[in-house]
Amino acid sequence: MKSRPRPLGDLKQSEWGDPARHLRSVKDEMRHNLIQILEEGGEVFPGIVGYEDTVVPQITNAVLARHNFILLGLRGQAKSRILRALAGLLDPELPILAGSEVNDNPFRPLSKYGRQLLEEHSDKAPIEWVQRDARYVEKLATPDVTVADIVGDVDPVKAARGGHILSDDLTIHFGLLPRSNRGIFAINELPDLAGKIQVALFNIMQEGDVQIKGYPVRLLLDVLLVFSANPEDYTARGKIITPLKDRIGSEITTHYPMTLEHGITITQQEAWTDRNRHSLHVPDFIHELIERIAFEARQDKRVDRRSGVSQRLPISVTEQVVSNAEQRAILTKEKRIVARVSDVFSALAAITGKIELEYEGELQGAEKVAHDLIVRAAGVTFESRAGGADCDQIVEWFEDGGALKISLNERADLCLKGFSSVTGLVDLVCNLGLAPIKDPAAMVAGCELVLEGLVAQNRISRNEDLGYTRSRSERPRSVGQGGPELFA
Hints:
- It is a single chain.
- By secondary structure, this protein is an alpha/beta fold.
- The protein has helices at about 10-15, 20, 25-40, 55-65, 80-85, 110-120, 145-150, 155-160, 175-180, 195-205, 230-235, 240-245, 260-270, 285-300, 310-330, 340-345, 350, 360-365, 365-385, 390-400, 410-420, 425-430, 440-455, and strands spanning about 70, 95, 125-130, 135-140, 150-155, 170-175, 185-190, 210, 215-220, 225-230, 250-255, 280, 335-340, 405, 460-465, 465-470, 485.
- It has two domains: about 10-255, Rossmann fold (3-Layer(aba) Sandwich); about 260-485, no CATH class.
- It contains 23 helices and 17 strands.
- A five-stranded parallel sheet has the order 4-7-10-1-11. Strands 2-3 form a two-stranded antiparallel sheet. Strands 5-6 form a two-stranded antiparallel ribbon.
- The radius of gyration is 30 Å and the shape is elongated.
């Protein structure tokens, strides 16, 4: 590995001695690196799915235009992730004057500390190297954030120890924004910042100055300012001061996955499903069902659309589904973890906390709404997999008085034995390609999908006490002995 220049004199003799390199702004640096990625056909934001034709081109334009910008979108639309990914457009390392709190450029220091260091040591001034990740600074805006947090404050201790007057630059304890000099400063939920903080940001963006405890301070910062906000808050009168809004170069709107495939890809990418104790299999129709829960929730009138339904919902549900299947495998001593539709119903806790309800939904309760969303999602998934399939034999079996109740923690082979008693069910699962006949655990998941699809179509019924029965039937007489309960 090539050694990095340490004294300023050595740095001047390196590639950093070129003024085109050391005098360029952070926005020019990011623009240069972005152009290089585009020319090489690389991926601008690896791991960001579904924004390739919408959001990413707009961010690319903003960076090329050297704009400060804001991402507007509901919760769970990867806004913070995108902002953090911007650090990938910075140089891998950056030289600064050693000990500088504001990443002083060795060739053009910002702070009085940096200027004095150069005066005292000249070409022997010590150099430090900052990694690109350390040049990204993020702050969540809350009403209690102060000017001192963002910009800085006078430090009486520094003044006393150094014998400085309070208006001296050396008495300032720098806030987050100056510490992000020559880097990226991100503020999440911008409208939550108090008006005076927004004014301070505007002053720095516009004039490069700010008042700290009544003392005017010049901060000609070299920084890319990026923000995120909920569209409703950002457009609300009084939450954003007009001069600040006018200084933000680009407003970019994010969105939830537009296609089911994008949603599934994101969920599988983000969900923690690596359980080392057992081998894991999640049928693809289970992934589809889980993703459709979020799509259904975003259209449900009982769910507050202004709040949105985060992409974290299907991610959390997937993790809960796998956990429930893992628990069953441990209890039944099965070697494989195979997720079932019934595991999705066990993941209600991962749904109820992710949806904000309208008045009608609050009357019904979060669990009832979540349960209904799963049923609807199962019905749509069944229709997509088996639309037009002949299910009459299965329905007739239940209409003739048959009923079936399966324990959530039953072994797969015993569950399949129960499902095999339903005329035509196993054959339909095989014909639809939902599972191979030699895989009992996968067959059980496929059988559950078919039955839940018929429940969603109101062709059969299901409840906690009776299990699957004919539509609106009374409880039939039980004839089962152990394992799955069969009724005739």
